[in-house]
Amino acid sequence: MSLKDQAPINARAALESMVDFGAPVTLTSPAGVASAMRGYTTDISATIDPETGQAVTGRRASAVLSLLSLTELPVAVHDSDERPWLVTMADATGALSTWKVIEVRPDRSMGIVVLILGGYGAAAD
User: Fold this and answer.
1) Which of 64, 75, 88, 110 fits a 20 to 30 Å CA distance from 35?
2) 3-124: CATH number
3) For residues 17 and 114, what is the distance between their CA atoms, to the nearest angstrom?
4) In this predicted structure, what is the pLDDT of residue 122?
5) pLDDT tens, position by position, for the chain (125 residues)?
6) 65-84 confidence digits (pLDDT tens)
7) pTM of the model
8) Cα torsion at 122, 89, 110, 101 (round to 10°)?
9) Which residues pair with 120 in a beta bridge?
């Protein structure tokens, strides 16, 4: 098996490992179907401007999941009248927040998808 063929398998093992990166994530479809998964998550309250080195106001969050574990690729919804895909995850203190998927970045070579998340419910703080 080539390294390219092995990459999605390795990515899945790392993302879903309870010892390494894997953190609990609940992915909920617009139809309300929830799937418990593991992935790599971020929730950053302040972003650093690379030009100035200064903190900028805002909150950024993302979830990285294995494509091999998904039965359906989430879709970003930009119309506020449509129900979005949702991601629920815990922060370092265990506090849960729910986010809507605002951008989907699949990497089919590595077998992962990066979900860029935006404010939804408690995540809008």
Assistant:
1) 110
2) 2.40.10
3) 17
4) 55
5) 888 888 989 888 888 888 877 899 999 999 999 999 999 999 887 777 788 877 677 788 999 999 999 999 999 987 778 899 999 999 889 999 999 999 999 999 999 999 999 887 655 44
6) 999 999 999 999 877 788 99
7) 0.85
8) -20
9) none
Tokens describing residue 49: 């401007």
- Start-end of H helices in the chain: 3-15
Compute the distance between CA of residue 22 and CA of residue 14 in angstroms, rounded to an integer: 7
pLDDT at residue 21 in the model: 73
C-beta neighbour count of 58 within 10 angstroms: 9
What ranges do the domains of the chain cover? Answer: 3-124
Rg (CA), the chain: 15
Instruction: Give CA–CA dist 54/84, Å, rounded.
Output: 32
Q: Are 15 and 38 in contact (CB under 8 A)?
A: yes
CA separation for the pair 37, 112 (Å, rounded): 13
94 CB contacts (<8 Å, ≥6 apart)? none
Give φ, ψ of 66 to 5 degrees: -80, 130
Amino acid identity of residue 19, one-letter, is V
